[in-house]
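Entry 14. Ran structure prediction on the chain below.
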Amino acid sequence: MSTDLVQETPYDGGRLLRTLAAFRATGHSDMAFGGPVVENGTALDITALHSAQTRSLQGLRVRSGCGLGGKALLMGRPVSVTNYYDARGITHQYDGAVRAEQLETVTALPIVVDRVPRMVLYLGHRAQVALGDVWYDAFVPLVRKLEREIAVDDEVRRRLGRLRTLGPVPSPAAPTAPTSPGVQLTRADLRDISDELADLAALVQDDTLRARLEEVRSRVEQGRGPGPADRRTSTGAVPTALAAREIDVLAQVALGQSNRQVAASLGLVESTVKSYLKNAMRKLHATNRVHAVRLAREAGLID
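Output, structure tokens:
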């Protein structure tokens, strides 16, 4: 399966620039910059700048424990200095790059996922500014959102890696073609791939990537074809294939649960429940959640 389904991560490309813009606006800062943690957590690379006056910081590698960002990386928490050049408690080997931007007050915010630092964002002011708790608290929603995005990207890559171990998806014209000598995907394998793709589509927020995942899943479904284990409607037609999680969500909705209650019951976040429900309604051609439950019952998908 092609790896180009995975687009840029939150810590590179345009997504990082948009993130820096959001942090800069929230902090009313003059500049924002940052990048991913590399070398097994021993350094970070500054790969993006927002509202920079020079390119002095672009491509700079900051070692753990060195400078302001290195200290934040080492400690795993935000670190700030009001007067960067006279600040004690940090090393000053990066002063030249910072001075070129005329920065005075600088903050380094590490983004940590599962206790592992993944990136560091800097916010700089070109004047000495006193930063209080209210200023720091304003970043909490942005930091949590970024942590979730990185976690979702990790999960997408993990699941795509699992799918690749099953071999390439067969085309509709040759559903039984072997993936390698002596290896052939079974209908059960294709069902697992289809369910994984549906789960991935529900996880990602990018509309283009979600559409591509759904397109690949459609090809898988065509290659799998109906089997004896497929449930049928009362009219004998094979119902639109729903992912296992989509059926789980509909089963909980059928009990009268709200999206929040379904999320608690299944151990999901509410936005993921909404995505599963939306996908199920689309596949069943349902006009609302009640209609989707009725159609799923008629298809024998839920009790």
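DSSP finds eleven helices and seven strands in the chain. Will compare against last week's run tomorrow.
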